[in-house]
Amino acid sequence: MTGSGDGIDATTLFGPQGGLTYDDFILLPDHISFGVNDVDVSTRFTRSLRLNLPFVSSPMDTVTESDMAIGMALLGGIGIIHYNNTIEEQVRQVERAKRFENGFITDPIVLGPMHTIRDADKIKSEYGFSSIPVTEDGTRAGKLIGIVTGRDTDFEENRDLHLKDVMTPNPVTARKGVSLQEANEVLRKTKKGKLPIVDAKGRIVAMVCRRDLITNEEYPLASKDAAKRLLVGAALSTHDEDKERLAELAKVGLDVVVIDSSQGDSVYQAAMIRHIKSKHPEIQVIGGNVVVERQCRRLIAAGADALRVGMGPGSICITQETVAVGRPQASAVYYCAKAGREAGVPVIADGGIASAGHVMKALALGANTVMMGSLLAGTQESPGEYVYESGRRLKRYRGMASAEAMRAGGAKRYFSERDKIKVVQGVEGYVADRGSLKTFLPYLAQCLRHGMQEVGCRTLDELHKALQSSQLRFERRTPSAQREGGVHSLFDYKRPEVAAGN
To answer: Per the residue annotation, which of 44, 209, 298, 317 is the catalytic one?
Structure first.
């Protein structure tokens, strides 16, 4: 039994007093009986997909393109590539992430003997790799006759030379059916960088790369599909023309699609969900955004595999003050997670994550993952170049309803691309440099593990059960308590660089 001084449960916390944000409450500690590294933060992302880290990058054009998607998946999360671009560009971004060399490459790009070095250059520019199998007819149906690598072409001035004149003929291969471990052993013994996998007729069916030996060791938590390719998501709108966008994305192996609407409880989104589940059942569908239980139930009934929760809490979003509709994010997550849990549908807390502590709070309220924008926009992997302002290294960050983003296509998210008068619901600004995702995301994960240890929960399932059973205890924070919980009473101070802004 908890005493009167042991805080309140979530039902009492989210009583009739009004909506709450993450800063309005704090979790109370419980008994520690395990080490911090015993904490498992793996989680359900959708009905059918799991992640080793509960982190998702937002589909914003200053946050997620292929570099971010690759980095998020390698580290155990997932990236959602924005759609403020052409169909061809979004497909290229998704394909680049899906083709990232990590284990077996099951759909290698091939060229023919009469292709030129210039053709190989184009592939390197688009996909980031330079080792390309050469087949008799330039398709995977033809017999493998050679391989061309950067060693063959890097110092060749004439980029119009045919590949037959520069390729390495009769490369070392392995037969179809070889295990990844066996293929890696062949690479070790032969000291080759690439190993084509061929069938009985000599046709290439896959590739294994030496670099993946290192990659697999460096990124044991990587999010992968059944074919060992990285998991990748993409966003689209509810408009009929985006059905064509989806069809093209499906061709390159998209795993999950986010229907990107600021207010997702609409007949348009329900229709799009049903279309996707009918035409592309292999793709998981995330519906949203929603903030109340009745919205969740309608999208779940339409077939959503996960729900995206949040309306107006983002640092660059002004929806709540512009249209006076939305909900404080902590309240939205708590009630939507409750509805999702009843139906077995995971929930993504989207927006308002301004610190590592907010990640812990969102998950403690029932969310399965958190979607981040501003926290990731300053990393090396986000789109755009760094700028300097007053000696600080910054990156541009803008809301998808900012004036600039809407001109580029972001108005689709707000059903307003054809409006004569645009209602701007976002701003443009800058965020501080956070270094590489490779150090920042593990830092956030370790903060989360410490938080879960403090409340006595080894897994996210245990955390959610503690929430439901009222074992997890909370306390409201007054404005002075919030000030006390941060840095105060110092003449000056400096935060650790990896935690800047947290």
So the answer is: 317
